[in-house]
Amino acid sequence: MAEENFFNIDTLENGIERALAPGLRATIFPGDQAMLSVVVLEPGAKGEMHHHPEEQWGYCLEGAGLRYQGDKIIPIKAGDFWRTPGGVPHTMEASEEGLKVLDIFAPPREAYRKPGEGFAAY
Q1: Which of 4, 16, 84, 90 could hold 56 in an S-S bridge, CB 3.0 to 4.6 Å?
Q2: Separation CA 104–CA 58 (nearest Å)
Q3: To 5 degrees, how large is the angle CA 103–CA 105–CA 108?
């Protein structure tokens, strides 16, 4: 899409690319008050536990895996969504089919406003 402020989940054009960990990448779309991030985990990929002050919501678009949040490990599949309060340690692990998640941050994570690597965790 060529229009400013309009995007497509399949092409992810005009997003900010970030390599979070081996087999785990994000395409980020920052706004003024919130930020969306489409995260793709290859089969078996796992992120590192991290936390940040921003509230985060996640929605499983495709695939399945595990959500590590605080001291809990929750199986997730397409259609599931969850809230992670700021400051709570969390990560994800993809099943053998892989995983695609839409994350929403409020307020936006400043470290994600530019391309980079890693989770930029606190």
Answers
A1: 84
A2: 6
A3: 135
Residue 53: burial class (beta carbons within 10 Å; 0-12, 13-18, 19+): exposed
Looking at the DSSP bridge assignments, the partners of residue 29 are 36
d(CA 9, CA 61): 10
Q: How far apart are CA 35 and CA 91, in angstroms?
A: 18
Taking the C-alpha atoms of 101, 102, 103 and 107 in order, what is their torsion angle to the nearest 10 degrees? 170
Tens of pLDDT, residue by residue over 64-78, are: 999 999 999 999 999
pLDDT in tens, 36-52: 999 999 999 999 999 99
pTM of the model: 0.92
Other Cβ atoms closer than 10 A to 95: 16
Residue in this structure with the two tokens 């930029």, named with its chain if needed: 120
